[in-house]
Amino acid sequence: MQTHDIQTQDIADAQFMQQAVRLAWRGLGATAANPAVGCVIVDTHGAVAGIGWTQAGGRPHAETEALKHAGDAARGGTAYVTLEPCAHTGKTGPCADALVAAGISKVFYALEDPDPRVAGRGAEKLRQAGIRVHQGLLAAEALQVTAGFLVRVRDSRPYVTLKLAVSKNGFMRTPEGESPWITGSLSRGYGHMLRATHDAIITGRGTLETDDPGLDCRLPGMTARSPLPVVMSRHGLFPANSKLAARAKTAPVILACEQHGALTENVELCRIDTLHPKDVLIDLAARGINRVLLESGPQLAAAFLNDQMVDEIALFTAAHEVAMTGESDISRMGLNPTDLEQNFECSARMIFGSDSFSLWRRRSEKEA
């Protein structure tokens, strides 16, 4: 094969893997405890024969879905998968075996699966069957969608996104008597999209009592993608007339506390000896939660930040100031621009009407 042909194939491989990454994003927030994975099957003529992504509840897996769509066209073809195909039997059979049975001749996967039941065994199964295996294609892109699962397996805690909506002068609140909304409707809509891509959402008792949030996803057709609400309340206080108390009648709601007061009907009590962020996250990881969205006041947000339990910050900033005085909430959390840029790196920026949005991912120890 000539050099030009090799370069053309490399570009095509990257494009197919990029499609697999986009497919993986479709399942994000709905697949726990499994990872959100995307898969593309390409036939011997270089055409896409099947696509798939991990379905709600974590199964069927992406490879199974893509092979089902590809049918006989998968034989001799190539599979592009964002995560190493599994090698163990759980509630479904190993995806590595399914790829072998379908007659796939080549597999590209972006990331190795750190699950001890896989961790290279899936790739080895494929190689033993005579399939050519390539690891690492678009690993950085796949990492963004797989980070929650990887962090949970590696660190026994979920990946945490801190969502903040602040005024131009750094406040998360408005003066009494004014509209509580700091940012506009477009920003709030994207905030609901963030909820849909996380498995659980944490808030504190103060926010629950002050704002009475529903913590659900209210985008049309996406209410089923609402994350699991978790309220951190040291003394177990939980307003019985709150929106979350009403929601608990039909869906799970967790109250994390050190000691409980009067129990609220239908709310699951999670008793933790010390209500530190890490302890709550460890409990959620044991429940299979991969990704957590933190929507709270500055005090609880600062606790997560101080314990280095925040992996990324979704920051919505309004173009206007609010009539508040004293130290800003951003300053109280230690998120002044200099501190933010020292510990986090901006990975995306968007504009929502008059609001600006930026996504900040925590720097590695080598980068900080």
Report what the structure shows.
Helix content is 33%, strand content 22%. It is built from 12 helices and 14 strands. It has a 9-stranded mixed beta sheet with strand order 10-9-8-7-11-6-12-14-13. The longest helix has 25 residues.
Number of helices: 12
**Regions with little confidence, pLDDT below 50 for 5+ residues:** none
From the N-terminal CA to the C-terminal CA, the straight-line distance is 44 Å
Q: Averaged pLDDT, please?
A: 92
Helical content (DSSP H or I, runs of 4+):
25-40%
Shape: globular
What is the helix/strand order?
HEEHEHEHEHEHEHEHEEHEHEHHEE
Structural class determined from secondary elements: alpha/beta
In this structure, how is the largest beta sheet organized? 9 strands, mixed
Strand content: 15-25%
Task: Tell me the total number of β-strands.
Answer: 14
Rg calculated over all Cα atoms: 22 Å
The side-by-side strand order for the widest beta sheet comes to 10-9-8-7-11-6-12-14-13
